[in-house]
Amino acid sequence: MEKPVLGYAMCGSFCTFDRAIQQMQVLKDIGYEIVPIMSETAANTDTRFGRANDFMWKAEDITGRAPICSITGAEPLGPKHMIDMLVVSPCTGNTLAKLANGITDTPVTAS
Hints:
Layout: E1 5-10, H1 17-29, E2 33-38, H2 40-44, H3 52-63, H4 71-74, E3 85-88, H5 93-100, H6 107-110
Parallel strand pairs: 1-2, 1-3
């Protein structure tokens, strides 16, 4: 049986990005194909926890794919069945509330 293709989305909780990247690597190491997704904020904001480009490069290095960082890039994932499931790590309360209420205003919530 083939393993599902995972969409691995990262948003806003910058202090946990290192751990999220480590978990992405764990999933890759056990054989999952991963499609990286980052909110615009995650993809463009440098913080005391690291530079946005460094996290983007790490995600691309692990997955072999550039992260999807736009709503238009993420929108086809569901309708075209490009991913089987979505991991949101880290998932902020804001993103969780948007998902619960069907608000699609970031690449993460559009996935």
